[in-house]
Specification:
Layout: E1 2-9, H1 16-27, E2 39-45, H2 51-66, E3 72-79
């Protein structure tokens, strides 16, 4: 089973990397870009966990290590 975790800064949290990307794209001629937010995608290969338990286990991983829940939110996708 595979779990994909999407981690992003919560709205209202400053994103200097996203601002730098948006500003640079504007200078490169992509004026339609008015803002950018940078996040991360984490792919986990899971083995030996029941499908019914997988989301709870991955959520626990996010809460303990993969996301800083003070400033970041996350979304989990599971696939077989």
């Amino acid at each position: 089973m595979k779990a994909i975790v999407h981690v992003a800064l919560k709205s209202g949290v400053l994103d200097p990397q996203g601002k730098a990307v948006a500003d640079t794209l504007g200078r490169m001629g992509f004026g339609e870009v008015q803002g950018a937010r940078i996040g991360k995608v984490i792919e986990l290969d899971l083995e030996g966990v029941a499908e019914a338990d997988a989301e709870a286990r991955v959520k626990e991983m996010c809460e303990k290590l993969l996301a800083n829940t003070v400033i970041e939110s996350y979304r989990i996708e599971l696939s077989s």
